[in-house]
Amino acid sequence: MRIAYKFLLSTVILVILSQDADGQQLPVFSQYMFNGLAINPAYAGTHNVLSATISYRNQWRKFEGAPVNQSLLLHTPLKDSRVGVGMILQNDKIGIFQRTELYGSYAYHLRDILNGSLSFGLEAGFGVSNADFSELNLEDTDDPIFLRGKTIVKPNAGAGIYYKTRRFFLGASVPKLINTKLNYSQEDVLGFTAKERRHTFITTGYLFDVAANLKIRPSLLTRLVWGAPATTDFNLNCLLYERFWIGGTYRTNQDIVIIIEYLITPQLRLGYAHDSSFGQIESLSDNAHEISISYDWNFKKSKIITPRYF
After folding, report:
1. What is the spatial distance between Cα 237 and Cα 202, in angstroms, rounded to a whole number?
2. Phi/psi-derived region of residue 41, left when phi > 0, alpha when psi is between -120 and 50, beta in every other case
3. Quick one: pLDDT band at residue 145, thresholds 50, 70, 90?
4. 190: number of Cβ within 10 Å
5. Out of 67, 128, 264, 286, which could bridge 268 as a Cys pair, Cβ 3.0 to 4.6 Å?
6. CA–CA distance, 287 with 62 (Å, rounded to integer)
């Protein structure tokens, strides 16, 4: 009863928050529940092994210049296991704009907090943004602004907090604390100044036993960013025979997501997500595809906790 109340309270808080925020600049990951470092630096080291994830996301494939994201994420505990470190390397391409980011994460874990662990995380790094105006198909090609690209390097930092037990998790993070300006043209000639907006992620979930070989895990993720509507992912995944995850997500911007993840070995995971949009661009977008591969290295030769529920 106490656990169910805790999950219900978290759900109510997330729904209230999702009504009150104002677009979305950071990549949307449909498989966030299997890869928490992508949204929260406090997640670093929580697997108790060196964990690596490679992901690829292709969104709205029928649109020219549609968003594409490639990511590499690594994290591991250090020797005393109270400290975790991580790294995120990712590349985003949208139209003529490309952004490559490299961030390092540091997390400190407090053990035995209400039968779980409480983690505090920080991350810092930089992003390299490029706008290649020469890719534009223009009638007037004499304007010098459009004959060259513009590269901008900007640092940023983030923070997060994450609590988990074997079956419950609750986290909050702000991956980009600084609203940095991205001036792609001299003296604002193009009439706009882009900014990195501060994002907030809040997530929670719980695992329930249903039968001997069936578990279900409802979870939520709310994204808050200034200048864009808040979105919330309502997710439900089922674990079959401690090996095969299948589930779905309803995203409040009118997306439906199907998620499949297979535990090939205790160390190797393969995941796939397919997003379907029911908004105005549904018939043109061809939706989104997201593939991820994760592997855990256990150098200490201790027993790997498997399956991991989040």
Report:
1. 18
2. alpha
3. low
4. 15
5. 264
6. 9
Max Cα separation, the chain? 70
What is the rounded CA–CA span in Å between residue 47 and residue 305?
A: 8
Residue 243: C-alpha distances to residues 20, 24, 143, 165, 246 (Å):
38, 34, 58, 20, 10
Taking alpha carbons only, the member of 76, 69, 131, 75 closest to residue 103 is 75
- Of 16-20, 61-65, 278-282, give the range with the top mean pLDDT: 61-65
- CA nearest to 43, candidates 157, 207, 163: 163
CA distance 59 to 80: 41
Alpha carbons 192 and 38: distance in angstroms, whole number: 29
2-297 fold? Porin (2.40.160)
Residues 96, 65 contacting (CB under 8 angstroms) = yes
Extents of the domains making up the chain: 2-297
Under a CB-based contact definition with an 8 Å cutoff, are residues 291 and 55 in contact? yes
CA distance 241 to 302: 23
